[in-house]
Amino acid sequence: MADETIFDKILRREIPAQVVYEDDDVLAFRDVNPQAPVHVLVIPKKKVGRFAELKSAPLRDAGAFFAGVARVAHELRLEQNGYRVVLNNGRDGQQTVEYLHARVRAKTLFATH
Ligand code: 5GP
Questions:
Q1: Of the residues 6, 11, 29, 99, which should be mutated to test ligand 1's pocket, given the most ligand atoms within 8 Å of the CB?
Q2: What residues contact residue 111 under an 8 Å CB cut-off, 6+ apart?
Q3: Of 23, 54, 88, 96, which residue is least crowded by CB atoms under 10 Å?
Q4: Predicted pLDDT of residue 109
């Protein structure tokens, strides 16, 4: 099990974040340092430290996460113009928070929140 991270605390609402979407599988919140008009981080509620761990995780966990990422983009109304999903893995992948997170980025802000 990976060490406790800031995202564990956000998930438990111990530190604040601008949550934009939540369901049984994922929590999505705005990146504190946005690099695009839409820059949201999506984490699985069932903790995974990094993308590489999905190679031995139950397929349903990986599926639940990726379907959740797609739901976030849908809820933010990004589907028509498109969006980018980025996953950093490990040191050379520039992963700084050891809790799996997908960045959903888009140039155009359609979200109402
Ligand atoms: P990584 O570098 O691990 O791929 O991405 C971590 C991301 O989390 C960065 O884009 C960083 O701006 C964001 N981040 C780090 N700490 C916090 C925080 O406390 N709150 C929020 N909302 N985002 C954070």
A1: 6
A2: 20, 38, 76, 77, 78
A3: 96
A4: 66
Residue 6 is predicted with a pLDDT of 98
Report, as ranges of residue numbers, the positions in the chain whose pLDDT lies below 50: 112-113
Q: How far is the CA of 29 from the centre of ligand 1 (A)?
A: 10
Residue 113 is predicted with a pLDDT of 46
From the list 7, 74, 73, the residue with the least C-alpha distance to 40 is 73
**Which of 33, 31, 55, 34 lies closest to 43, judged by CA?**
31
The answer to whether residue 113 is catalytic is: no
23-32 pLDDT, tens digit each: 999 999 999 9
